[in-house]
Design a protein that fits this description.
258 residues, mainly beta, four-stranded mixed sheet, four-stranded antiparallel sheet, 13 strands, 6% helix, 29% strand, disordered N terminus
């Protein structure tokens, strides 16, 4: 069932994403173990050199992460609204902040957002709610109509697909199967990067949307998260600190047919 969660983060440390029960499973614990050769990409088409699938929404979804060469590869990690990887992921080097590095929760009052801000109290108010093409990592990397999905487009994916915690070639993640088209993709559990190293890889799928968290604090953007509690998976939308390094699964509009 789709849920909306708030992602709590501690400055300078990883903010762990847990399942609804609060339990973090070890890789493979109570998980199905299908044969690695099971086919996850079928009926694909190629857009600007990259495979895409119709999963029953208004879009085509890429079959690999941005920067990956195979469906099970993690690919590259990006801060929200940035188009290049970094050695460290923190507020001090986040492109759309003033460079201030909060060390306590109270110090967040001194952090100013320089772009994508709807409330003046948080920085430069520009009312931009969705990443512009020049700040979209998928558009910059693949071009030709590729982009990051919005929160609303991920909502449609949640409604139109079934989610199964699974693995490909020993790497865990989610098999996402369309209820309408029967086609499927695999999202590897790449986790995220806080400061300088990956966290919760093999445990959680953490993927950016292009949508700013618009309910209040502008330190967040929406991400979509998939985790597993035993044999039953949980998929939901979360608001996540923008500086964190996370993976991206690109989308593109369906070609117009006459």
């Amino acid at each position: 069932m789709k849920k909306i969660f708030t992602l709590a983060a501690i400055v300078g440390t990883i903010c762990s994403l847990a399942s609804c029960s609060g339990k973090i499973d070890k890789p493979g614990e109570d998980k199905p173990t299908p044969t690695p050769e099971e086919k996850y990409v079928d009926g694909s088409t190629t857009i600007a050199g990259h495979e895409a699938l119709d999963l029953g929404t208004d879009l085509l979804w890429a079959t690999t992460n941005l920067g990956a060469s195979a469906p099970q590869d993690y690919g590259k990690y990006y801060s929200w609204g940035e188009v290049e990887e970094k050695k460290e992921y923190r507020w001090g080097n986040y492109k759309w902040s003033d460079g201030f590095e909060p060390s306590t929760t109270a110090e967040y009052a001194d952090l100013r957002i320089t772009k994508y801000c709807m409330f003046k109290v948080y920085g430069n108010k520009d009312d931009k709610k969705v990443l512009e093409p020049e700040d979209d990592a998928a558009t910059n990397a693949w071009g030709n109509g590729w982009r990051m999905p919005t929160k609303q487009e991920v909502d449609a994916l949640l409604k139109n697909c079934e989610w199964e915690w699974n693995r490909v070639e020993g790497l865990y993640g989610y098999k996402i199967s369309s209820k309408k088209t029967g086609k499927s993709i695999f999202l590897p559990a790449a986790g995220m990067i806080a400061v300088d190293g990956p966290h919760n890889s093999t445990l959680f799928c953490n993927y950016w949307t292009s949508s700013l968290f618009d309910q209040n604090e502008q330190y967040y953007a929406y991400s979509f998260v998939y985790t597993a509690d035993g044999k039953e998976g949980t998929e939901y939308i979360s608001n996540t600190y923008r500086y964190l390094g996370m993976t991206i699964r690109a989308v593109c509009d369906k070609p117009v047919t006459e």
